[in-house]
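haha ok so turns out i had the wrong file open the whole time. this is the CORRECT one, sorry everyone. sequence first:
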Amino acid sequence: MSPWLLHLYCLYINNLILTIAFGDLSDDQEDITSFALSCDDEMLVTASRALLLKQWDWRQANCTRSWRAIHTVPVASMTFDSTSTLLATGGCDGTIKLWDVVKQYCTHNLKGSSGVVHLVQFHPNTDLLQLFSSSLDCGIRIWDLRSSQCVSVLQSHYSAVTSLSFSPDGNTMVSSGRDKICTVWDLKTRKAKRTVPVYEAVEGVVILPGSTDLTEIGVKSKDLHFITAGSKGVLRVWEASTARCEDENDNPRSLTYLFHLPASARLATVTAEHNILLYQLPALTTQQQFVGYSDEVLDVKFLGKGDSHIVVATNSCQLKVFELLTNSCQILYGHTDTVLTLDVFKKGSLFASCAKDRSVRVWHMDSDSGQVRCVAQGSGHTNAVGSIACSRMKASFVATGSQDCTVKVWDLPADCSAEGGIRQLTARATEKAHDKDVNSVAVSPNDKLLASGSQDRTAKLWSLTGEGTVGLLGVFRGHRRGVWAVCFSPVDQVLATTSADGTAKLWSLQDFSCLKTFEGHDASVLKVIFVSRGTQLLTSGSDGLVKLWTIKTNECVKTLDAHQDKVWGLHASRKDDKMVTGSADSNITVWSDVTEIEMAEEQAKQEDQILKQQELSNLLHGKKYLKALGLAISLDQPHTVLTVIKAIREGENSSELLEKTLLKLRQDQKESLLRYCVVWNTNARNCLNAQAVLQVLLTHLPPEELLQYQGARSHLEGLIPYTERHMQRIGRLLQASMFLNYMWQKMRVAGAPSR
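then structure:
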């Protein structure tokens, strides 16, 4: 991680992914086991299972150098010194190698550690030339690099030492371990000053800078303080002299790594779920979050003012809210089981979620800070709640469908701001809607109708105008498998449904008849939405495809193939210019509508073509054949080029004019002309013009130059058979003409005077 946090580096299987910069350095041959970034942010070095060390130019994502690690087994840890000239690597073979990365050779081979060397770190004072390491024996070894000897072993921990942190003056060190203690060391005497019991397996420790005002987190004295991160998922501040915990910062998940960014006064932590959290010192407030792995994406929706965020339901009980501009993420806790689906109210600041824990929650996003809080919750279903729909006109109610075969309508409190705490939702209506699981519910644009789709192969239309009841208006029958999704048209009185039978259907709300059927997916169609002001449909399926349909023609006008698994999430922005898809392949894709851009480009292209055609006509009229020929070739229009050639040959002194014009063309234009001649020569009507051009090119250009033209050999080979055929045809015509002349001579009128 760079000290200024312009880039974030994460080890992921066999790739180094640069978050925020959105690039990656990949080593496709072997898994990467360790990596280190130099203190000056210039060098990134990786170690792989192939026992290779690679140096990367991470800005260009290029490997600039690689060399053998000399270790007999993979490298487990590595670090740079503060001058960025020495690199230390700790191997699983119990040895430590030091490398001069500037002069590119191994300077030290330190032996004596027992087992895997999982921690190496240089003393911050480069004049001391000391290296600290730890291995399976739980001791901390101090190596004197002048003599290549281990000068001391610090014994205090009874489990793996996970982290070391040095004070600014370099005289004090704090070590942490999974034995639930931290030890404060006096490096002058090389003895433990104090052992601090922290009551959790500690993965990282950072000494706080003494020059910073830390009163916001309860630090009042100027004594040494340090922060720990561990299995309880809590950042805790400790006073070294008294072993007292000064402050705690809650995080519901265990932490596996802690890193200090002194230049920007921030802390970075990594959770067990592969999420990265950034805290601002001295207040320890969460500044940014990055999600490392999304698992299966079950639903995704646009959120916020201007659709600046997306909210994602993954295969977990947490919700994730991403800011699209920065990829920063908030993780929302509240549900106790997997969140299944989401829906957003019209204004975009409120949204609702439902989960396998049989509950419904309503969340509010602050328009200024972007922070999301749970403002209401309700429970009442007897099985998992698999579908939810929000009211369209104003935030007044939500409707849910469950695996208990019922549909419920929940009234929202009048004030849904985050200040009032979490309110309880009550169901104003409950209806036994279907014989099997309710897969989808949708609310009409006027909030008067509710549609539901079920695994029982039917969709139903309900009235929401009754007090405390939901009235059945009609049933849509026609799908051969369970109905996965229902959606109302924003402009017409029609309902769209999708099914596991691979089709999407449009139904009339007047007589419940099927108006249209859209077939094209090879598997279940999971989601459907209306776009382009209700004139088109977007569908997503189990085949990983998203299809765009024009309702008027029943035609699939576009197929988007960006996912490898079921596309569960599909949502369009309020401006109808973007859409987002989420799939079981863990990928979330944001799409932009480029219809207007493509139309503008096509219009500009047509206008340019018209202008050039007019210019070409003017050049031909003015008999400026060279410019006309060059313009026609630049337009890549063989027929227009042929027209210019014909115009040249129809004039006086045509052979000389053609020769003069063609020889003034550039080489690339001659290449194009040769390519056109091959096409013209296949047609008897145009072969004379082609042969005239070929005569000029073959007569005046040396063979060496012709063979340098792209595809010249294949072009010439294509010319030969048709030229032979034309010669045979001309020969037959010549013979026929001679026969006619002979017959004419013999058919003279008897008695006519001979000439």
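The helical segments are 595-621, 625-634, 638-650, 654-663, 667-680, 687-700, 703-707, 712-746.
again sry for the mixup
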